[in-house]
Specification:
51% helix
Length: 175
């Protein structure tokens, strides 16, 4: 089949355009209704005086706050700390001592000291504060760390030896 070029001529099957009419003969469409206030309306003092009996020219009719907005940001961390501290329930000394002793950061830093590593100044200062707090709470509660550990170890050894001896008797029963 031979190639046919595109043309602008419309054939018989194409839709027909409406015939041209003169501007005077056309139907004039309705104008859109105006909605809203006219431009510059808030500064038109004549209408403001008519519409409101309590018109005050010194007052700006625009809505919104007239409060000055600070251009610099100031940290508000102090107020947040105070609020969170007041929301937490008060812990007694025993609960406070247990929470300090179970602190994972404290345990990690103590392990590092036992291994012979040196701590940063910030970590060392935090560790000293925590250990002082633990010591203060232990004195307040009347706990002595060394007196508590020594008898417990002896009793643990005795109890372990007793279990060992009783286990030997049970073993002989099975033989």
């Amino acid at each position: 089949m031979a190639r046919s070029k595109k043309t602008r001529k419309v054939g018989d099957s194409a839709p027909k355009n409406a015939p041209r009419t003169k501007k005077a003969e056309r139907i004039v469409s309705k104008k859109k209704r105006k909605t809203g206030k006219a431009s510059g309306n808030r500064h038109n003092e004549v209408t403001l005086k008519k519409s409101s009996p309590t018109y005050d020219p010194s007052k700006d009719p625009r809505h919104g706050s007239k409060k000055a907005i600070p251009l610099t940001v100031e940290p508000k961390t102090e107020t947040k700390v105070a609020k969170t501290a007041s929301k937490l329930p008060k812990m007694n000394d025993e609960q406070r001592l247990l929470s300090l002793e179970e602190d994972p950061r404290l345990n990690q830093l103590l392990d590092q000291l036992e291994e012979g590593r040196t701590l940063s100044a910030e970590d060392q200062q935090w560790l000293d504060i925590q250990l002082d707090e633990i010591e203060r709470l232990m004195k307040k509660l009347g706990l002595d760390e060394q007196a508590e550990q020594a008898p417990a170890k002896v009793s643990d050894d005795d109890a372990l030896f007793d279990r060992f001896e009783s286990g030997a008797d049970a073993l002989q029963d099975y033989q």
